[in-house]
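look at this:
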Amino acid sequence: MRAALTASLATPFAADTLTALVAYALVTTLTPGSNTLPLSGSNSGLRRTGGHLLGLLWGSYLMICLAGVVLGALFVAAPGVQAVLRVATGVYMLWLASRFWRAAALPVVTGLPPVRFGEAVLRQLGNPGAWFVATAVVVGFVPAGERYLERMLATALVFCLATLPGIVLWAMRGARLYAWMRSPSHLRRLQRGMAAITAAAAFLFWT
């Protein structure tokens, strides 16, 4: 495993693939969700939420690797299924965008105690939305074929690193973002922005 991970660090990415992967990672963490809302709701700052942040990152890495192992076997058994899943993922992202556009008010979560590392990992592993994100990463950005394992490990690592700006922002500025979202007009703009970003992300899986 260590040798494969070391080799993955040298795995090259096409510029457009790397850009799309980073963009998808930012979309999934900058938009409010079941992971970012509790992270900001603790209102504890970056120092006390370090375990939560690391747990989210490690949980995400594990999920992408687990999804990659299962999907890799499927890609070998049924060549061409990856293309079908890419189309399906894009359609699902468009559906999510429509949900964001029509969504009711976002829940306000405050006064939560900081989450420890192990708890954050378990929460991530038990989150259906996070499993969709992990599966979409493999389907959209890990091509089947030669060096699949190395590409999967490298993709998981790049994705997790690219999520850092979003989760750090929520940890450090979550309370201020909540205050801003209390305005109905601001909240509506945020929801429309989330819908537009999610719709744009859908096309990443069709290019």
Summary: Residues 60 and 168 are 15 Å apart (CA to CA). Confidence is low (pLDDT under 50) at residues 4-9.
